[in-house]
Amino acid sequence: MQQFDKSDVVIGISACLVGEKVRFDASNKPSNFCMNELGQHVTFKAFCPEVAIGLPIPRPTIRLIKKEDVIRVARPDGSGDVTDALAEYGKKVAKVAQSFSGYIFCAKSPSCGMERVKVYSEEGNSLKSDGVGAFAKEIMKANPLLPCEENGRLNDPIIRENFVARVYAYRQWQALVDSGLTKHKLMTFHSRYKYTVMSHDLIAYKDLGRLLARADLTLNDMAEQYISGLMSALTIKATRKKHANTLSHIQGYFSKHLSKLERSELCEQIESYRKGLVPLMVPLTLIRHYLMVHPKEYLAEQFYLNPYPDELRLRYGY
């Protein structure tokens, strides 16, 4: 499997999250995970849409305001409407983001929030928190497969791991396409993601297998449907039950090589993980050990065992 240098994995990010003092009050919202952990392994491209469209620092606050059935972005009194300017800048950055492997937005922002942004009435009353930032909306609409998350949600260890796993999966796909896509390469890619997809959605794994068996699709159509299905499956959170089921399938590869005591130990560790007594890294470490002692090329190529840099320690928290 292909390994990537820091410069190979590019992630778009709201500028305030990497320490730039660009918020309305000239402050920032630095993300410790982004700056001190993930940032050691990826390259961030920072954007502040408000500054980019000419708003000053500091500046009056803006919000999502519902006028009849249309959402606009303006100051609380309705003046200084910047909806169109933010949307146009979003479309511009969306083209650049085609080469990105992920994007991290600032939560609750009327420009960068990807979901659950508060919407107000023209009278200033708080309505539902179901809005989407005007800038973020354009990025996601133009790049529906791009893994996207918000800084606040990344504090959840499961969401954090899921996002990073999707980023690296998408980067692997981008590398595959750049290398020149063939049916053989597509089949190989799918085989290496077998256990990854299984740990998220077994039905999707079967559907993707059937898709690759079809003879009525062109390679481009098949590839387009495949990556769409893969990225959709990976957005489904893996659970302890799904992981344990996947680990049990992997265990079968060693059934003829392990002693009774070793098999029992691995079964116990998988069951302990299923019950929430140990983190995922415990049975995974044991499987990696057995893989070194009893090499299995097919397993060694599985992205499930090495989805991203170990240094991120994302599988220690759940």
UniProtKB/TrEMBL annotation:
<dbReference type="InterPro" id="IPR007553">
    <property type="entry name" value="2-thiour_desulf"/>
</dbReference>
<dbReference type="Pfam" id="PF04463">
    <property type="entry name" value="2-thiour_desulf"/>
</dbReference>
<protein>
    <recommendedName>
        <fullName>DUF1722 domain-containing protein</fullName>
    </recommendedName>
</protein>
<dbReference type="Pfam" id="PF08349">
    <property type="entry name" value="DUF1722"/>
</dbReference>
<dbReference type="InterPro" id="IPR013560">
    <property type="entry name" value="DUF1722"/>
</dbReference>
<dbReference type="InterPro" id="IPR017087">
    <property type="entry name" value="UCP037004"/>
</dbReference>
<feature type="domain" description="DUF1722">
    <location>
        <begin position="194"/>
        <end position="309"/>
    </location>
</feature>
